[in-house]
Amino acid sequence: MDQKYTKTQLWFLVILRVAIGWHFLYEGIIKLMNPNWSSVGYLMDSRGWFSGLFHAIAGNTGLLEIIDFLNIWGLILIGLALLLGLFTRIAYYGGIALLAMYYLSHPPFINAVYAIPAEGTYMLINKNLIELLTLIVLLVFPTSKIIGLDRFISKKRVDG
């Protein structure tokens, strides 16, 4: 079934995809450029349901290096994919998984106090959850098949 959008709908969905892509890319590049960056502090600060898992990752040097590598390059590759509209389905799922881990590590519970200040936390809802839900919305509106490099590799080209 072909997706039909108005020009306004299409452009705002694409702008949203690009904005989230920029956010992911920027976060990844900032971490890559800082040779001292590590997720250890963030993981040790976890207060969520899975804090034991996140603390265990932080306590295992080898596993922490793998997680840091995957976090940095995941952010960069997801960001680039969303910006370019290339392999967006994979990028959406990767972004959703990454944001879910961030959310589960630092859920915005009423009495949760974190060493790292949280921005945009409103009792169970925070910016990570909002961005995660936005990626889910974008997943069901495949704009990259119209405006993006996915249109060149798609088996079925969607006309806009």
Properties at a glance:
single chain, 160 residues, mainly alpha, two-stranded antiparallel sheet, 7 helices, 62% helix
Walk me through what this model shows.
With 160 residues, this protein is mostly helical. The chain has one domain (7-149). Helix content is 62%, strand content 2%. The chain is built from seven helices and two strands. The protein has helices at 7-33, 40-44, 51-59, 61-84, 88-105, 127-139, 150-153, and strands at residues 121-122, 125-126. The chain has a two-stranded antiparallel ribbon with strand order 1-2. A hairpin with a 2-residue loop joins strand 1 (121-122) and strand 2 (125-126). Helix 5 (88-105) packs antiparallel against helix 6 (127-139). The longest helix is centred in the N-terminal third of the chain and has 27 residues, at 7-33. It is globular, with a radius of gyration of 17 Å. The two termini are 13 Å apart. The model has no long low-confidence stretch (mean pLDDT 89).
Q: Could you give a short account of the major beta sheet?
A: 2 strands, antiparallel
H-E order: HHHHHEEHH
How many helical stretches?
7
Strand order of the largest sheet: 1-2
Proportion of helical residues: 55-70%
Share in β-strands: under 5%
